[in-house]
Protein 1
Amino acid sequence: MIRRLVPLVFLPLAACAAPLDVAGLRPLAPEPYSHPPKLHSLQPELRWESFPRPTDLKTDRSGWVSRVRHVTYDLRIWRGSRDPYGYQEVYPAELVYSRTALAMPEHLVEIELAPDTQYLWSVRARFELDGQSRVTPWGVLLVPGHSVVDDPRSVSVPPRSYYRFVTP
Amino acid sequence: MLTNARSAIRRAVVLLASVAVLAGCAGPTTTSLLLPPPPGEDIRSGLTKVAIASGRFPPKFEIVDGPAKGAGQGAARGALLGAAYTIGGASLAGPIGLVASTFLVPVGAVGGSIVGGVTAEPAAKVEERVAAVARSLSPRTIQNDLVNRVAETGREQTSGAFTVMAATSAVTLNGRAEYRSLVEDGIRTVLEISVIELALRGRTAEIDPSLNLAMTVKTRLLRTADDAELYKSSLTYSGGRGRTLAEWLDDGALLRAEIDRATEIVAEKIVDEVFLVVPFPRPVKH
């Protein structure tokens, strides 16, 4: 009996501990968990996947990815507040930090963020395609059992499911 | 513990509201809950010179699930809330609490109805506040601010030339705009942007709920040569910080600031979707 209960108890716990799937460039530090990771610095260093990813090249049937040139990255950080509708209990209330055209898929935040505060953040690639400026969609978490409102293609803006962290 | 109970009740309300919206019982003016794919590169290659036209009508304004109007509605909502809080609170105590709640629910409902009946404001006063908020909004300004913001963002983010059309510059035929005359000016596409609805949305069953701004905007990309629709979408801004109807009315600057924020976010999303975003390639499903 107890042996049967073990997976029932530990599998959900293991699921909570596993990083979440994302839509967009995946954060490498801090990693995306359902509970926002607590950082050690008020000026965190954020890292994410570079673009194009191996999977983009592999799945690109129309061939546009191979024509991508001059890739840079846009980064945004918002102060989070409680979402009144409780979808994800956090809402991008105020844009506090924004950088465009970052050359590398990493950035050391140049200002001190507020202590003990939940922040949302996201990145996207900015690039040239046949000489025209283009971007990838902003990265968001894919929370298990999420509602349509949290879908990356939802008609509802702003998204509630940006990546998250909490300052020390 | 009370916070947990409130959270549980809120989640339940959100879930029920979502089901209602998805079932088509209530909800947004939008026909789809997901955006269509952005225009392809074949369409975007023709977007070097774009005229932006705004809606020529005042957006609909409404209060959705606003404050209870009068003692009767207040008492009814209070009864529901009292019952829900009793069940929510008792459920935290486990199975015994749930059993006990079946006896306590009527007590919670009666208590809630008394509180609701006493605290709800008269219907006339609520109606007057709704009318006052509606009067404080300038529909023409809201439409113009959005198109100007889209043009500004478009110029910053793309290499295209954006012209904001004067409201009188396009021919109107049977209520629909025609843009064929723009061909002579070398304009091949028009981006039509209309704020179709502004709303302050609360939560069902609360007596004086916190209301959040919602702004629904329709976008159409039209080819001027034949008025063919190249792309269309609808977006809804859902605000974060809510306030009661009285609070929104007391400080008009707060509502203006929230509309400005909605305008900025929606404008950027429109520019992203129409001109910039390229979705990641999708893995082939076997």
Protein 2
Amino acid sequence: MFRMGKHDPALIRDILSGNKEAYGALVKSHSPKLFRLAFRITGNEADADEVVQDAFLLGYRKLESFESRSNFGTWIYRIAAHCALNRLRGHKIEESSRVSDETDPETDSLQVADAAAGPERLILSGEIAAMQETAMLALTPAERAAFVLRHMEGCTTEEIALALGMEPNAAKQAVFRAVHKLRLRLAALRVNR
Amino acid sequence: MKHLSDEELLEHCYGEGAGAAGGHIESCAECAQAYAALQADLAGLHAVEPPARDAAYGEQVWHAIEPSLPVYGSPKRTWQRLGLWRGLSFAAACALLVAAAFFAGRLWEHRQPRITAAKAPPPPQQVVLVLLGDHLDRSERLLVELKHTSADSTEMISPLRDEASTLLAANGMRRQDARRIGDPALATTLDQLNKLLGELAKPSGTLDPAAIARLQKEASADNLLFEVRVLRSRIPDQGSSVTTRSRGGKI
């Protein structure tokens, strides 16, 4: 998932001995990866920024409980995944209201809530991406987070379970349900493909 | 033939699950078709690419959170400082308590002697009255015993003589006390009592039944027992004399 930075253990020792600035180096080093994960789970840029900051704040507060033999990158990654899931749960209702969740009985395709986009501006890839995003928003927060970690981040079932604070079997089921729902919702794309 | 479930196909697709799934897919056309469809669908689900973040992104995150982060170690020192202040406050409170207790003790000591001084040394007249009351009690008891004793009984006379002898010595001092406090009635009665006690205290050979009868008659004639009782009633009761009087009252 993450490789331990060469200087991470030394930086952590510095931080715990009172050098707060040393944490800046860890933040700068791991922020991009955390942002990518947070954006994929939340699907929202502003939320992703918030998740990154929350994760580093939480990580700093828990730094004394961090075992130096562990990988800081993996550890903070798990914290970020958990923060993203919590944020997703908090904004789930708002996110759902952005798009219509009803299917068109004639076309059996999803209606994307983007009235401003005219047909000439909708290139195929953009439409697919929008439909995929819509289908992703229809997942539960746990399903979406588990699917992102599995399909996009390449995490194992154990890593997903650890990051999201659930049992491995529950993590496996969440991924399965997510894939099942996505395949059903994106069946129209399969026909057009 | 039992086909693979969707879940087993998905596990195999992500490289997990039983190793036998791969072999089954190779030998089962139906499962192979399902597996291919799943692979195609998953391949169509592209990873969402996040918006670009420049190289300064980490710096921005750090600047955003840095003011909220306390310095490790400093909270400990703060707690130590708080602990030190708490300890000093506790010590000061203890010292104040000890000082207050000390001064309270000193004040208590200053007040105590006055109280004991008021109680301990009784006024001389009060002492005299106590001694007089006790003397009159004993005298009353002797007179009662004399009144009721049989003149022929030498066994009864002997204790009376011993008691009279003791009372005679005390009676002299009480007579002096009576004169000092200026009580003529008491002095007169004690004079009469002195005479009687002198007669009773004589050696056994001279105190025959006739002498006893005479003394009984003189005591009765002088109303000495009555006078003693009246005088005794004028003196306020004291602890010891009350006991004596109640004993005398029973007789």
